[in-house]
Amino acid sequence: MSALVEADAPSEIDDRVRAAVAAVPDPEYPDVSIVDLGLLESLTVTETADGVVASVGLIPTFSGCPALDMIAGDVRESVERLDVVDRCDVTWLAGPVWESTRLTGAARTRLADDYTVVLRRKDSSLLCPVCGSDAVIDQAMVGPTRCRSVAWCPSCRNPVEVMR
Ligand SMILES: [Zn+2]
Q: Considering the domain 2-92 in this protein, what is its CATH number?
């Protein structure tokens, strides 16, 4: 082990890498971290002959989401900016499947307040992020992106977006 790695305990490097990943926002929701969205699944830091390599495993919210390449590039750039990491590998994992339960409370609140984005509950019902009504009606299967669809709240007469 080099003096550098001994000085920085592995867990401390892990924390710094995690913070660098958390600094990356979702391209569609610029004030919501991808970590708060529940995309970060695994993170390992290993010392190799080529230097310190961080391996970040992410899961997509929706397998066809076109923003995946952008997110992976942003994560790599953010982590490689750390002086304790020489290289960052980002992998999109096939599983586990993303579920809305992976969102943190902060992300949930922000999506509802800033973007009127609502999540489908386990029983497939929808709760309006604007007025709290549970009478939201699915309107169209096609939304602004493949990750989202559009619904309508008859109670407050607002369109809301549904994250699939
Ligand atoms: Zn409403």
A: 3.30.300.130
pTM, entire model: 0.77
Instruction: Decide which of 17 and 159 is more confident.
Output: 17
Whether residue 141 is predicted with pLDDT greater than 50 in this model: the reply is yes
Q: What whole-number distance in Å separates Cα of residue 85 and Cα of residue 97?
A: 29
Q: How far is the CA of 152 from the centre of ligand 1 (A)?
A: 8
- What is the CB neighbour count within 10 angstroms for residue 75? 24
Cα–ligand 1 centroid distance for 153 (angstroms): 5
CA of 145 to the centre of ligand 1 (A): 22
How far is ligand 1, taken at its centre, from the CA of residue 35, in Å?
Answer: 28
Query: When comparing pLDDT for 138 and 69, which is higher?
Result: 69
pLDDT for residue 5: 46
Q: Taking Cα atoms as reference points, which of 20, 42, 29 lies closest to residue 96? A: 42
The ranges assigned to domains in the chain are 2-92, 116-163
Distance 129 CA to ligand 1 centre (A): 7
Measured between alpha carbons, how far is 91 from 113 in angstroms, rounded to an integer?
31
How far is ligand 1, taken at its centre, from the CA of residue 135, in Å? Answer: 8
